Amino acid sequence: MIPLFLFLCICFLSMTYGQDPNFHIYLAFGQSNMSGQADPTAEDKTPDPRFFVLRAAKHSGQTVGQFYPGIPPMGHSQSKMGIADFFGRKMVQELPASIKIGIANVAIGGQSISLFDKATSASYISKARSANEWWIQYLDEYGGDPYKRIIEMGEIAKKEGVIKGILFHQGEADYQMADWPSRVKKVYDDIIADLKLDPTQVPILIGELATTAAGGDLGYRNDAVAEAANMIPNGHLISAADCPALKEASYTLHFTRAGYQTFGERYAQKMLELLGSLDGPVVELSVTSNEVSVGEQVSLEVNATAKKGTIVKLELKEGNILLEEKSVVPYTYILTSLSLGNHQITAIATDSEGNQGQASITIDVFPVQTPYQGVAHAIPGKVEFENYDDCGNGCAYFDDSAGNDGGASFRTEEDVDLEDCTDEGAGYNLGWATAGEWVEYTVDVKNPGTYNLVIRAASENANTISITSDGE
After folding, report:
1. Per CATH, the architecture of 23-275 is what?
2. pLDDT tens sequence across 251-283
3. What tens digit of pLDDT does each residue of 369-418 get?
4. CA dist., res. 466 & res. 367, Å (int)
5. Taking the model in full, what pTM does it have?
6. Residue 321 CB partners (closer than 8 Å, separation 6+)
7. Numbered ranges of CATH 3.40.50.1110 in the chain
8. Radius of gyration for the chain, computed over Cα atoms and rounded to the nearest angstrom
9. For domain 368-472, which CATH number applies: 3.40.710.10, 1.10.287.80, 2.60.120.260, 2.60.40.230?
């Protein structure tokens, strides 16, 4: 049998990724202090080969979802130097040369936590558009939905590297919101759930507002900031004490450049403590493949180097489940019988002085694609569009809306849009195809040769159908 795959699509782009466990990526979001208000210097615009921005906003002729040198603006087009910039620089400075740092920054000044809460963002954005608010241009740079953009960047981050944490600074706009701490927790919980992350491995760092001692107008709200950090099991409060605030004409909410540097480096210091990278062992974790089908074995290679003393214990975990414990490195571990979905594997090394270091990697397990009802379509012959392969949405086909818009009583558990044919031949037809949707069919070509492909199709518009065979 020669497997052949047919794709029905208006526009289709295939991309492959290779996860690098030494690429540590952070998701940052919030208001203007996370966006950055300090003017960049010439030195700030000198790239570090290990520091990157995962471009979340459309500007500067760069492509959303791609990595670029970590220089300002890190957020939207008018962002400057802020917490995320100095955080990244400090991390690169302190971590081993093998580690790269990436940051996806989604931040807009003056906005409520409601903008980032997927339960309230649509209403919040609708009101802002009706009032033609000043910040709509930045909203549009983030694709019109900041929470969705955070998730999109998170998915890319998981494929390219490892999400190590979330950086958050917000609250000035919500100084009268009594339930702000619980709202912050909800957004964090939503991000963790939607990206299928392990909350024990992905902390959120929450920074204080400019303090009263520094002249900050809302320093009294830092009790609420501390409450938000305490409500999240892996939440960590970052102090703004002794971070100079910038006195502006109407308010004192932002930090000076020196304040941003101190503050951003405190975020980094806390993250380094959590990583155990100051004194803990350096752990290396690699995998034969981070995208496998059900039933495939995965080989993990684990190594650890102690900065102090010697390695006395190395634990390999999936979530909170201990897979194996060793006292000798390097070693190989074979994963078998992985279930469908995402699996985060973490190696934790402990040295003779009690210091720990760790590394994580995500393995995505996909279902196995098979011909419809287990029998490939014979070529030459007829292939009915409704008899696409079995495997589900995102595997044997891609449909961007749930359920069958065509209403046919055939393959009702699927999302491909089928309807009953009312003309000669009856049966079913496939419709409501939008740009980027596709379906796949496995065929059995009986004899090598040249074949004519005839498709019965109709459209009210000048649309395009693309056909590929084995991806070409």
Report:
1. 3-Layer(aba) Sandwich (3.40)
2. 999 999 999 999 999 999 999 988 876 678 989
3. 889 998 999 999 999 989 999 888 888 899 888 888 889 989 988 999 99
4. 25
5. 0.66
6. none
7. 23-275
8. 26
9. 2.60.120.260
